[in-house]
Design goal:
By secondary structure, this protein is an all-alpha fold. The chain has 18 helices and no strands. The longest helix is centred in the middle third of the chain and has 30 residues.
């Protein structure tokens, strides 16, 4: 559908602010893992349960909330989702135990996928046909800017004022998003064809599942490295104090650049764009593993890894092409898939660390997961040749990112 908005730019900005809050909460929580582990006097692997809990919250919440909200108007639903996110972060800020922090992180993950998925669909629908991928990228910019500015700043504040202050800051940003969406977002009725039953029927689409699996497996290559990046930088011993916020910011700069590149790649070809980014996602962790201990070269490898994070965009556009009336569920499930990668990547990398293979092993695990993503993408491509390609991968030439 096409949405007419009085202030499309401000509406998309209001979504991006919510995405910014989500990005700061998700990624800065990883960076501060050593600090709340010390605060609760637990080991880092135990503290890592809070990271995994958030990811599993996204995995569960994305389909459940997308289906539950299928017949709801988008604007109040978005406001409710980001408000729930803010409340969950306040609970985390005042968590008295590690178990309560883990639960609050699970609760914060529940609205993540549905909010971003619906926000991206709305942003794409507000723009002309040939610029829909740009709308998705603009909302995603909130996540990438969070890594450039928000995550390093939150990390510094967290170190200076305590890790709890991070979650208070996130809650405040969520309030700003609520107010902005209420003021600028257009009122959009739910798609009449988007009933809960039609949303669930989208799960019978093999093309949807293969696209989701590509992200769930391949993007684990990013999180296998990123989840243990701060700990690796601290442990190698020769990195200066500013190295950790610097490398986190560099990842965000790379991701912001990657969004721009990925939106163009997605308009050229959904499969081709995803393949290019997955190849980079395989190469960057290998470089990271080979230069372990040399923090400037590690930073370079993280910058390259950040660029590949734009993989989300061609996969999101592919889902828009094939999901039919299950657009909301497919968009939300894309975030669930990437957060499943957020759970699997650190899990497998943690297993390698526990086995005594050292920090470099996280890079090798990341490369293996990204390479597996290429295999799944190949299966999805061959399947599309049999069932008939759509969108920018159609046999008939198309304009823009139809």
């Amino acid at each position: 559908m096409t949405i007419v908005a009085r202030h499309p730019g401000m509406a998309i900005l209001s979504f991006a602010i919510g995405a910014f809050a989500i990005g700061v909460s998700e990624f800065a929580a990883m960076g501060l893992l050593p600090y709340y582990a010390a605060g609760f006097q637990v080991t880092e692997p135990v503290a890592g349960h809070a990271v995994s809990a958030y990811a599993f919250g996204v995995v569960i919440g994305a389909p459940v909330l997308a289906i539950a909200g299928a017949r709801l108007p988008r604007k109040p639903f978005l406001i409710g989702l980001i408000a729930l996110f803010g409340v969950a972060n306040l609970l985390a800020a005042f968590a008295p135990t590690m178990d309560m922090l883990t639960f609050s992180r699970f609760l914060a993950g529940l609205p993540h996928g549905a909010f971003l998925g619906i926000a991206m669909l709305t942003a794409a629908d507000m723009l002309p046909k040939g610029r829909r991928a740009r709308g998705v990228a603009q909302v995603m910019t909130g996540l990438t800017v969070a890594n450039v500015i928000g995550v390093p700043a939150a990390g510094l504040i967290g170190q200076a004022m305590g890790w709890r202050s991070l979650f208070v800051i996130v809650a405040v940003i969520a309030v700003v998003s609520v107010v902005s969406i209420a003021r600028f977002a257009p009122h959009v009725e739910a798609d009449r064809g988007a009933s809960p039953l039609s949303q669930i029927s989208g799960l019978a689409n093999r093309a949807v599942w293969l696209t989701l699996l590509t992200g769930a497996v391949g993007f684990g290559g990013v999180f296998a490295v990123y989840a243990y990046l701060s700990a690796a930088m601290i442990d190698i011993g020769n990195a200066p104090a500013f190295a950790i916020p610097l490398v986190l910011s560099v990842f965000g700069i790379g991701a912001t650049l990657g969004n721009l590149v990925a939106s163009r790649l997605a308009s050229w070809s959904r499969f081709g764009g995803a393949l290019v980014l997955l190849c980079g996602m395989t190469a960057a962790p290998i470089l990271y593993a080979l230069v372990m201990g040399n923090w400037p070269l590690m930073t370079l490898s993280i910058f390259i890894l950040g660029i590949t994070a734009g993989l989300f965009i061609p996969l999101q556009m592919r889902l828009m092409d094939v999901a039919g009336h299950a657009q909301t569920l497919a968009a939300a499930m894309n975030h669930a898939a990437f957060n499943l990668a957020n759970a699997l990547g650190p899990l497998f990398a943690g297993m390698a660390l526990s086995a005594g293979y050292g920090w470099a092993s996280t890079g090798w695990v990341g490369a293996a997961m990204a390479a597996a993503g290429i295999v799944v993408l190949g299966v999805a491509f061959m399947d599309s040749r049999q069932t008939g390609p759509v969108g920018s991968d159609a046999a008939v030439p198309v304009a823009g990112d139809a």
